[in-house]
Write a structure and sequence with these properties.
By secondary structure, the protein is α+β, with helices and mostly antiparallel strands. Helices cover about 35% and strands about 15% of the residues. The longest helix has 19 residues.
């Protein structure tokens, strides 16, 4: 009912499988009655969610945000759908994403743009834009997303949610055939850190509740650096976004952590470009499908021709070393998740393919470096702008510290009193 009432305006779903969802719900009811409504069994039994449209779901379309794949229906579940079913979730449909999950907003020829529920004149972010908008608008309580440069954290920040990019190796990477560097990561878009942690357990290979339990864990004194300036020199940080990151740093100091301002590292979009370009170029397409791609996707695909696996592995290793060297002895880096509020719908319509990609990719200036380095990162909501738009603050941990990062984020959001 909520999807029917709100999605026509917001465009979070590309497909809703209502009859199938109600059948799944009836089966969940039977399972609950068979247990006498006692606790146990799948942790999310009966909870509705939806799957980002680049992930296969048995019997549903897998359009990947593109007219080129509008005919594709998957005969099988992919990793994410299997994990959600294992956790007891009811899959009620597919959420929108940018074409081939490249851009940090969702506006494709396949369907209407995905709009921000806090201000429908603005985008909800991307590439996991539909998932974020659905959760923020109350159409879903929680949803999985994927993040190759900020695709979970960016829409979480724009929509006022918790968005967690798991560290490399924490959960499987189903995109290894395309992703030679390992920049992609699965993770949740949720309203609370506690919900997010529980979904990470569901996404893990052997769910054991360890991430959910970590939310209540003790956090020792940490070395914190606060980054207020964008790694891209030509990207200005809005004063309200910088102030939010500063406020989180101040709160961490009050909690007993050592806090200092970070010297910004300097990066270039072209450093990251070969990695993304090769991923797009590796997507198998028939000749007639290429002309159906968005101009920005076609431009990126051309840039990826001739880029070898060895090329991108070398680039990835160099960039990872640079980011980790800059991170230094810090345990946590705090920054704005994004430098500016969500862009207006149609902001990029007058640009050519290269212009769209280069302009929009700057939105990921604070997020993309930590995909290359494989570090866990979370965006938490931290107030709003004077016009009521959500502000997200990013916390980045060292490799292998996903659980500690969850506990720290929960401490900041008031979900962990330890």
């Amino acid at each position: 009912d909520t999807i029917r009432a709100r999605d026509g305006e917001l465009g979070a779903f590309v497909e809703v499988a209502a009859r199938r969802a109600l059948m799944q719900a009836r089966r969940a009811d039977l399972m609950l009655r068979a247990r006498g409504n006692r606790p146990g069994g799948p942790p999310f039994l009966g909870v509705p969610t939806a799957i980002k449209d680049h992930e296969p779901v048995r019997g549903l379309g897998t359009r990947i945000g593109s007219r080129a794949f509008r005919w594709l229906v998957s005969p099988i579940d992919g990793y994410v759908a299997r994990a959600m079913r294992r956790g007891g979730f009811i899959i009620i449909g597919k959420t929108t994403c940018s074409e081939l999950t490249i851009l940090p907003f969702v506006h494709v020829a396949l369907h209407a743009p995905t709009r921000n529920p806090h201000d429908t004149s603005r985008y909800g972010g991307g590439s996991s834009g539909g998932a974020a908008v659905a959760v923020a608008a109350g159409m879903l309580p929680i949803a999985p997303g994927s993040d190759g440069g900020g695709s979970i954290r960016i829409p979480a920040a724009f929509c006022g949610l918790v968005g967690f990019k798991t560290g490399r190796g924490t959960v499987p990477n189903p995109y290894g055939m395309l992703d030679a560097v390992g920049i992609s990561s699965l993770g949740p878009l949720a309203r609370t850190v506690r919900d997010a942690a529980a979904m990470i357990d569901t996404l893990a290979v052997r769910p054991d509740g360890s991430f959910a339990r970590a939310v209540d864990g003790h956090v020792p004194p940490l070395r914190v650096k606060v980054l207020l300036r964008s790694p891209l020199a030509d990207v200005d940080v809005a004063p309200e976004h910088a102030a939010a990151a500063t406020a989180v740093g101040r709160k961490l100091a009050e909690l007993g952590h050592g806090v200092a301002e970070a010297t910004p590292f300097v990066g270039q979009l072209d450093d990251f470009l070969p990695i993304m370009a090769r991923m797009v170029a590796r997507v198998p397409l028939l000749p007639g499908m290429v002309r159906l791609l968005e101009p920005s996707t076609q431009w990126l695909r051309e840039r990826g021709r001739g880029v070898t696996r060895g090329d991108v592995v070398a680039v990835g290793e160099r960039l990872s070393r640079d980011v980790l060297t800059w991170f230094g002895d810090a345990d946590i880096v705090v920054s704005p998740t994004v430098a500016q509020p969500a862009p207006k719908v149609g902001a990029y319509l007058n640009l050519d393919g290269e212009g769209v990609f280069r302009t929009a990719a700057a939105i990921g200036a604070f997020t993309a470096p930590f995909n290359v380095s494989g570090q866990p990162a979370i965006s938490i909501p931290w107030g709003t702008t004077a016009t009521g738009l959500p502000i997200g603050v990013q916390l980045v941990g060292r490799r292998g510290t996903d659980r500690q990062l969850l506990a720290l984020a929960a401490r900041l959001t008031g979900e962990n009193g330890v």
